[in-house]
Write the structure tokens for this entry.
Amino acid sequence: MARSIVIVGAGEFGLTAALELRRRGWNVTVLDQGTVPHPDAASTDISKVVRSDYSADVIYTEMGEAAITGWRNWNADFGTTLYHEDGYLVMTTEPMKPGGFEHDSFEFQGARGHALHRRRSVELKREHPLWNADRYVDGYLNPAGGWAESGRTVAVLAAHARTLGITIAEHAALAGLIDHGVRTHDGREWRGDTVLMAIGAWTPAHLPHLQDVMWATGQTVLHFKPDDPSHFRAPAFPVWAADIGRTGWYGFPANADGIVKVANHGVGVRVNPMEPRIIPPDTEEKFRAFLRTTFPALAGVPLAASRLCLYCDTFDGDFWIDLDPAHAGLVVAAGDSGHAFKFAPVLGGIIADVVEGKPNRWAARFRRRARSAASREGARATSKSR
């Protein structure tokens, strides 16, 4: 008899796990509190970075390389371009040196056979003229990287899941756990051999025993609409990171609608995902101040939209994928920490192996773990403000 699983959350973690478990013969039901893609989910936006550049981190680099192959395969399998291999341009305001994200990524990627292109001021001015080449003096372009249409990817995966016989129940908001199942606010009970909790920023709210190791943080992203978006497209304007190791700034080329997305992977503010999302009033000016020193041609472009993206940050910045000892039959897949979407093509396999208790060469990194004085504090959050 086929095993059954109830997956709560139809974002990247939940849907990729659903597809892989269905492939392995499981009966799969996926619940989501709203429509799919859910407008408030971290997975739902116009774009996410795809890269394998992770300093000298072997595991994330391997996962990134495998995921890029997976994204190419998804483009072919689904007959549509979900992943745009426009390259990943990493620049810094100082010469690259050992210990820095840019230097260590450059050296490690090169040692693994990636055909990188060094970018100093002279090359930057020639190849990427919208950059302030007087300020950004060193870096490199990795052609094997780019961006994914994240919200559309979720929609495509959900549609594919339905064709495979996976049940996706929308507007099924989680009320609580029951024995080998969950109860939703409409009073229905959903049971299976296993429950997978894949609810992103809502995880610590529904599983309070995890609040010491993960929490929800808000990160603002802005969308700009230039009059002529052709100047803001690859190869001259690929996915970029501007001194990201120190400042957190990154962004994207213009999409099909002419929107240029700019974001910051920096210090976030702890938020309650159940409450309204409020963007700090000084956000736009901070973004424009950055643009004036980095992309002057973008600094005065009209603002098209703004969004507060919620991360589920773990204390060390690593994902959290493991059995939950507090509840029999429960597996938690959470802790995106703002950098999970790029791994979508490989995450389902990792989660499915954890669900089935099978060995996985990457899963050990994401097991439940204690927070200690020696732990790397990788979650970028200030104290809770609301």
Observations:
- The longest strand covers residues 303-314.
- DSSP finds ten helices and 22 strands in the chain.
- The CA atoms of residues 44 and 53 lie 23 Å apart.
